[in-house]
From TrEMBL:
PROSITE patterns: PROKAR_LIPOPROTEIN (PS51257). It comes from the Bacteria. It comes from Cryobacterium adonitolivorans. Residues 25-44 have a biased composition (Pro residues). One of its GO terms (biological process) is chromatin remodeling. This is FAD-binding protein. Residues 25-55, 99-118 are annotated as: Disordered.
Length: 478
């Protein structure tokens, strides 16, 4: 059942050899063919409804959020935010130096670009903002309030970008296919703004319940987090950046015991658990792509300032966009700029010229070169676009007729079976009293599933839920 995904997918050939040296010898094949076992029927019922995301496959996102790839630096986020000829300005979550990969980071970046623009522009100038996500709408709001003539140009037929709230009659609450959480709510005003907009949100304690494949609830061992912490400490001492995967190998992760301990979970399983349920989930990237210098460190204290948005994250953008001039379903294909103006070409062939522009398309779109910049972006901008990484996180929302599970925990995780794709679940039952589960898949597993059809995607999710359809056999230590 275990495929040691993190090792196979993330470590060098050398470490794989080391790993195979630790693996127990495989039994020799016998001459008698083994009869194929009939799989046990699943205890997880079919859901009544399903909604999913596929962000890496989305042409206007090309990934979920930016991450610190090996050899990238935080300075490169700053480099991207550097105004170009005082005419062209970039913004978006990837440019946030304080909160990349978040809604508040995106908004802050949009506001910063708008302030940079106002500091050099004349009153009344015509400004185009490309992209109607959190960054673009925040920039446009500020510029419009400052008296500029603003046109927002958006490829999709809706506002919000990666904030994607689906309001549907078949769901008892708004479904979030992008962000659901306000992270570091003590350090930003999103919760107050949402309250002002009458959008409900609630405190969210991310303490996970961990289960083994047979449904045993098991206390989370510190081995995984300690191993990653030691690897990051080793990486920090190196003269050159190295991947988290290599740092793990250098600090002995391949010699972690693979012998099942209590509840059938080995130390190596706990490392896989830490990577799958935390490190890769946070960055959307596998350990072999993540910077050893800048990868997220395991949390040392419980996070007490996370809130879950229940009443529709999209309202935030809709409200900011009220009375703005937005051109939907309009893909920008070319951005030409001089020191006097910016000209934009749309997919329809139409063109327009403005005094200045703010480009807020995601890093994944900038990496793909689908927008032609003429002249090409400056060297430092291109270097930053190439160096920073775009990670993947996808979600599945499943609505059941009634709960089939026996736990009130809000966060579910699994350990000891790395063939399961969805390793983290949010149980909406204790929060909303609705039998809704939200599954998360990240990194290479997410990329692997992105192009699968809904049936295959749902099957992978339902299989990942099996440990929760089995009556728990132990309770975690207090
Ligand atoms: C699954 C998932 C879960 C997340 N969870 C959280 C969370 O819980 N909390 C949190 O704070 N953050 C979370 N995030 C991150 C957060 O959603 C983003 O950081 C933020 O929304 C990015 O905003 P943005 O304006 O930078 O980019 P976007 O929202 O992507 O906006 C860019 C816009 O540009 C448009 N565009 C692209 N190409 C073109 C083109 N050629 N022409 C015109 N328009 C174009 C796009 O359609 C899009 O509307 C999550 C993201 C994902 C994907």
């Amino acid at each position: 059942m275990k495929r040691r995904t993190f090792l196979i997918s993330s470590l060098s050939g050398l470490s794989l050899l080391a790993l195979s040296g630790c693996a127990p010898p495989k039994p020799a094949p016998t001459g008698t063919p083994t009869p194929t076992a009939t799989p046990a029927p699943s205890l997880v019922p079919q859901p009544q409804d399903m909604l999913r995301s596929s962000w890496s496959d989305d042409p206007f996102a090309r990934g979920s959020y930016s991450f610190a790839a090996v050899s990238s630096t935080p300075q490169q986020r700053e480099d991207l935010a550097e105004p170009i000829l005082d005419r062209l300005f970039l913004a978006g979550e990837a440019l946030s130096d304080t909160a990349p990969g978040t809604v508040q980071g995106a908004r802050g970046s949009g506001q910063r670009a708008a302030r940079d623009l106002t500091s050099v522009a004349e009153p009344g100038e015509r400004v185009a903002v490309i992209g109607a996500g959190a960054a673009g709408i925040a920039a446009a709001r500020l510029l419009s309030d400052a008296g500029f003539t603003v046109l927002v140009i958006e490829a999709r037929d809706r506002l919000g970008g990666r904030i994607h709230t689906v309001n549907s009659d078949s769901w008892p609450m708004p479904v979030e296919l992008g962000p659901s959480f306000i992270v570091a709510s003590n350090a930003n005003s999103l919760d107050e703004e949402l309250t002002g907009l009458e959008v409900s949100h609630a405190p969210f304690a991310p303490t996970p319940e961990a289960r083994t494949p047979d449904g045993t609830v098991t206390p989370v061992s510190p081995v995984g987090a300690d191993t990653v912490t030691a690897a990051l400490a080793w990486a920090a001492e190196q003269a050159q950046d190295t991947s988290l995967a290599k740092a793990l190998v250098a600090t002995g992760s391949t010699t972690l015991s693979m012998t099942d301990g209590e509840a059938g979970v080995s130390d190596a399983d706990w490392l896989d658990y830490q990577l799958a349920t935390s490190t890769t989930l946070e960055s959307g990237a596998p350990a072999d792509e993540m910077s050893g210098w800048y990868a997220p460190a395991p949390a040392t204290t419980a996070m007490d300032d996370i809130r879950i948005v229940l009443g529709g994250y999209g309202t935030l953008v809709d409200d900011d966009a009220a009375d703005l001039d937005v051109l939907l379903s309009s893909v920008v294909t070319r951005v030409g700029y001089t020191d006097t103006s910016v000209s934009l070409r749309l997919g329809t062939g139409e063109s327009l010229t403005v005094d200045r522009a703010i480009v807020t398309v995601p890093l994944g779109v900038l990496k793909s070169d689908v927008i032609e910049f003429n002249p090409p972006l400056p060297f430092a901008h291109r270097g930053a676009i190439a160096a920073l990484g775009m990670g993947t996180l996808d979600k599945i929302w499943l609505r059941f007729e009634e709960p089939f599970w026996d736990t009130d925990a809000a966060v579910w995780t699994t350990v000891g079976d790395d063939t399961l794709d969805f390793r983290v679940w949010v149980n909406m039952m204790p929060i909303t009293n609705e039998p809704i589960l939200v599954g998360f898949v990240s990194g290479k597993q997410a990329l692997g599933l992105a192009k699968s059809d809904d049936t295959e995607f749902t099957d992978a999710a339902l299989r990942s839920l099996e440990p929760f359809a089995i009556v728990a056999t132990a309770t975690p230590a207090p």
